Amino acid sequence: MCKIGRKIRNYRIDKDYSQKQIAAMIPMNQSNYSKIERDIQEPNLYQLKRISEILNISIDTLLGVKNDCYVEYKKELDNLFSKYFNK
């Protein structure tokens, strides 16, 4: 099973971005962004949202959501985004 940091790193490399570029667009410290890619630190909800937007990939894909709870999970995630980002 591929961890989220490795997935983010692979998509970043495919898009030809440096860690420094992605960190600046989030925005966050490049050192902390590196920790995300190395699976030392998990991204918070805002960082995860920004990474998915920058890399043009769904959060579902990054999280590897592929089970029977997908619909319920998707509703919960949508509710969280609405609560925190669509004010």
Structure description:
This protein is mainly alpha-helical. It is built from 6 helices and no strands. The protein has helices at residues 4-14, 19-25, 30-37, 45-55, 59-63, 70-85. 11% of the residues are buried. The mean pLDDT is 87.
Strand proportion: under 5%
What order do the SSEs take from the amino end to the carboxyl end, as H and E?
Answer: HHHHHH
Major beta sheet, specifics?
none
Percent range for helical residues?
A: 55-70%
Secondary structural class? mainly alpha
**Overall body shape:** globular
Counted beta strands: 0
Q: CA-to-CA gap between the ends? A: 36 Å
Q: So how many helices?
A: 6
Global mean pLDDT: 87
Catalogue the unreliable spans.
none
Compute the gyration radius: what is it? 13 Å
Give a short synopsis of this structure.
By secondary structure, the chain is mainly α.
Draw up the topology in text.
Blueprint: H1 4-14, H2 19-25, H3 30-37, H4 45-55, H5 59-63, H6 70-85
Helix pairs in contact: 2-3
Task: Provide key terms for this protein.
globular; mainly alpha; 6 helices; 87 residues
